[in-house]
Specification:
The chain has 257 residues and is mainly alpha-helical. The chain contains 13 helices and no strands. The longest helix is centred in the middle third of the chain and has 26 residues. The two termini are 27 Å apart.
């Protein structure tokens, strides 16, 4: 058939978002393994640099929804923008952690944004995959990241964790996002594009993290981490490595169902 709509599925496996999740499972697992969150979540400098890498990505996606309000598929996501919007929080957190330092973005960020611009121009519906994977990650794992950062950075308020402060219950937002995507009318070739783009989402994110791992802040965080582990055998780093990271990895995957 030329068109189809997913309506009242008999079980979760018949949902479009379930298929998107399953088709990208291997890419997701590999990408999650590259994150090194035990370092990122304990270094203010490295955390600021990580947020700064992804700020332009979320900023573009949110501005694209504004531009694509009348698009047949993206326009259906537009009403969710107030809840989805993360760029302002990312900006606040970057400013909080960078203090007086100047942060720059590597060429990989420019290439990433250029790729998204090309999609918006040539095949906007492909961006649906990016809204699904990028925002499901935030709303599935954000609560745990918020708790870990609050503890490791010794925060006493929401300053420094604005990227993960949600207006509503994150599960409600995730369900709304999935419902909208599952109800979209798509041609079969359009749906296939969503599966293909899912792999590209994780590949692009891996490129950003590879750049981060080659930086001075990452190497310094590694050195600090080694010294910390030698001095403290049971503390924050152990909690993050043994509890926070496995929980986050499972939530990023399982809670997309």
């Amino acid at each position: 058939p030329a068109f189809f709509r997913v309506m009242a599925p008999a079980d979760a496996t018949s949902l479009r978002t379930h298929r998107m999740r399953e088709r990208s499972k291997a890419d997701h697992d590999h990408s999650t393994g590259q994150l090194k969150l035990s370092l990122i979540l304990t270094s203010k400098t490295l955390y600021a640099e990580t947020l700064n890498l992804f700020l332009p990505i979320y900023k573009f996606l949110e501005e694209a929804l504004e531009r694509q309000q009348k698009h047949p598929q993206l326009g259906q996501l537009y009403p969710l923008l107030p809840q989805l919007a993360r760029a302002p929080g990312f900006r606040n957190d970057v400013d909080f952690y960078r203090e007086n330092r100047t942060l720059t973005t590597p060429p990989e960020v420019d290439d990433y944004v250029a790729y998204l611009k090309q999609l918006e121009k040539e095949n906007p519906v492909a961006l649906v995959a990016w809204y699904y994977h990028m925002y499901m990650a935030i709303f599935a794992g954000g609560f745990i990241i918020k708790k870990c950062v609050t503890k490791t950075m010794k925060l006493s308020s929401d300053e420094g964790i604005q990227a993960f402060v949600f207006q509503d219950n994150p599960k409600i937002i995730r369900d709304e996002l999935k419902d909208v995507i599952n109800s979209m009318v798509l041609m079969e070739d359009q749906e296939e594009v969503l599966y293909e783009e899912g792999s590209i989402v994780f590949a692009r994110n891996d490129e950003l993290m590879a750049n981060l791992r080659g930086g001075v802040a990452f190497k310094q965080a590694e050195a600090d981490c080694c010294r910390y582990i030698v001095k403290v055998t049971a503390g924050v780093m152990v909690v993050i490595a043994a509890v926070c990271i496995p929980l986050l990895q499972s939530k990023l995957w399982l809670e997309q169902e």
